[in-house]
Amino acid sequence: MSPVNLKIEGPRNPSSKEYASLLYFLSQSYGFSDLRWFENDTSFFYGTRPDQLKTKWVLKHGDQFASHVGIFPFNAMVDGRPIKVAGIGSVATHPEYRGRGLMKKLMTHVDRQMVQEGYDLSILWGERSLYKPMGYERGVFQDRFSFNRRFLKPLPLGKSIRPVKAGDWPTLQKLYTRHPFHTDRNVDYLKTLHRRFNRGIPEPIWVMEKAGKVVAYVIVFKINEGYEVAEWGGDVKNVIDLIASVLPKPSTGIVWISIYPGCELYRWALDHHEGQVRTPTSCMVKIINLGKVLKAFESQLQARYESHSLRNLGSLSLQLPGQDKVTLNFGRNLQVEVGAKSGKALMLTQSQCVRLLFGGTSPSYELKLKDFELELLDSLFPLEWYWWRSDWI
């Protein structure tokens, strides 16, 4: 097909009449035989409602979909403070239209949409080489533990341990929101997770009851190496008993769990794991509003500042191109101030900013700064954040 004759329509949102064709196009582009794979995987975000269609952006050549990028909106909570997150997913270009810059054109359009719609941060799971030129950098490193299945002692299945049922969802929602890091879901979203993880294990979501009340739950799914826990909620002993009890026989194999530091399950894992790796899980991050992101993490920054040996250090300003200056004021307490006019700011590229906030090493390794700034930033960053396997898109 000659580029001269290529007349592309869009970017625009697909219509409800085009929805079935869009699903077919996405599955065809990824080589999936299941024509509704994307709808089954993240069904909460797929459908013909206006709010579902307006987050999908397409380019078409005649009647043929040529390229697609989806925005999957989340409100992520950090110790009760929200971050408006634009998850990027279902990025696809039809094989006949690749190499023509269509994905870049859509991503540029989506980037403007994210700014206009007030997103604070964007996150995606994809190849670094593909998305780094668009301002994304690898971040949000997590600890992934492995456990030998045969050393997890199961409890007998019966009254106290059972698959999830219709009346359990509100309780699971409450257990989930006890975590300091979570997304602001509703019950309907939780229900779609059963459909998503119902692959290889007939019942992926299990609960534990005590005195007639659900006290813990786990979501388990099959992977090549064994099994992985996508999500959990409840006290650590109940969660571990659940995991050990619901995994299919035989008892050989490995169980994987990504766990955030500080929780009881993390402390248990340090004593009982078979292996431990620090992994970014191909997570890519772009900071859209540095001020709002740092404001969400202000309590975490304050806790680290309190444990620092230095006090009353003045201030340090950070800035991304095209964004307001953000100042960390170091007095009796640490405070995040957005939009200060005076004073110099440490100018950061998108890549430097992501590595500073959510990277896997210290700022002194990543950035060339003065001694004072390095000492202080090394004590404050990188931040701890956790993104649940069940929320990947």
Could you explain how this protein is built, in words?
This protein has 3 domains: 3-119, Gcn5-related N-acetyltransferase (GNAT) (Aminopeptidase, 3-Layer(aba) Sandwich), CATH 3.40.630.30; 143-279, 3-Layer(aba) Sandwich (Aminopeptidase), CATH 3.40.630; 289-380, Nonspecific Lipid-transfer Protein, Chain A (2-Layer Sandwich), CATH 3.30.1050. It is 30% helix and 30% strand. It has 14 helices and 19 strands.
Report how far the terminal alpha carbons are from each other. Answer: 32 Å
Beta content comes to 25-35%
CATH T-level fold name of the largest domain: Aminopeptidase
Low-confidence spans: pLDDT under 50, at least 5 residues?
none
Top-tier CATH class of the largest domain: Alpha Beta
Helix content bin: 25-40%
> How many β strands by DSSP?
19
Secondary-structure-derived class: alpha+beta
| Overall average residue pLDDT | 90
Q: Any idea what the CATH superfamily of the largest domain is called? A: Gcn5-related N-acetyltransferase (GNAT)
Radius of gyration in whole Å, from Cα?
23 Å
CATH architecture of the largest domain: 3-Layer(aba) Sandwich
Let me know the largest β-sheet: 8 strands, mixed
- Give the count of helical stretches: 14
Number of structural units classed as domains = 3
Shape estimate: globular
Q: What is this structure, in a nutshell?
A:
This protein has 393 residues and is of the alpha+beta class. It has three domains: 3-119, 3-Layer(aba) Sandwich (Aminopeptidase); 143-279, Aminopeptidase; 289-380, Nonspecific Lipid-transfer Protein, Chain A (2-Layer Sandwich). Helix content is 30%, strand content 30%.
